[in-house]
TrEMBL record:
SUPFAM superfamilies: XCC0632-like. Residues 192-219 are annotated as: Disordered. This is ABC-type transport auxiliary lipoprotein component domain-containing protein. Residues 33-186 form the ABC-type transport auxiliary lipoprotein component domain.
Length: 219
């Protein structure tokens, strides 16, 4: 009888631990505004977005009043954060501007004209009641005379009434921050520099060997 009671307790504990309803998962889903911007990127491959460790983990994180970054194992992102951030940003830029921005690896037969790299230095619901998304982005154009961009972004989104950092408000604020970043990249905005590619890229080795050989001397 005693063994039966112990087994029943263990089963109840395991059932409680495995209950999916106890784990909440949150989506990154920027709102669509219907705004249309000029296409300044054409075809662009977006490299996997670089995120801080706390932002690339599966748990939704926030900063508490003591400055510590905290999280809860029962409050998770619905998708891998790096993948979700990359794919969502690419789609948002494309929807805004009509550009063809696709996360790596590039799936089309025609190669992209440009590459886009985003390095996030901070992506955090701060203790001051704002969500901050800060870092740098780089647009590379290897064609001779192409415009290369190296620019900063520092986006602040209010967390809402009272500034409380619940997982739902963090997800909502991050979605809004990604939408603002997409707009900034679409117009190539933000402090930084624009540099011209001074020369054409070196020939691909396959292109070299695909050319006809010069005639032999005396032939």
């Amino acid at each position: 009888m005693r063994q039966y009671v112990i087994a029943s307790i263990l089963l109840a504990v395991l059932a409680g631990c495995s209950s999916g309803e106890k784990t909440a998962r949150f989506l990154i889903d920027p709102p669509t505004t219907g705004e249309r911007l000029p296409n300044r990127l054409g075809t662009t491959e977006l490299k996997d977005v670089s995120l801080p460790d706390y932002a690339s983990a599966g748990e939704v994180s926030w900063q508490s009043a003591d400055g510590a970054v905290r999280s809860n194992t029962k409050q998770l992102w619905a998708d891998n954060p790096q993948r979700a951030f990359t794919q969502t940003l690419a789609r948002a830029i494309s929807d805004l501007s009509g550009a063809t921005v696709i996360g790596e690896p590039w799936p089309l037969a025609e190669p992209p004209r440009r590459t886009l790299e985003v390095r996030v230095e901070k992506a955090l619901a701060q203790s001051d009641g704002t969500y901050r998304l800060a870092g740098r982005y780089f647009v590379g154009d290897s064609r001779s005379g192409g415009a290369n961009q190296a620019r900063n972004f520092d986006i602040h989104v209010p967390m809402g009434e009272g500034g409380a950092a619940s997982p739902a408000t963090v997800a909502r604020a991050q979605s809004l921050a990604i939408a603002q970043l997409a707009r900034q990249i679409a117009v190539l905005g933000g402090p930084g520099n624009s540099l011209r590619t001074s020369s054409a890229p070196p020939s691909n080795i396959d292109d070299i060997f695909s050319q006809p050989l010069p005639p032999l001397e005396g032939s």
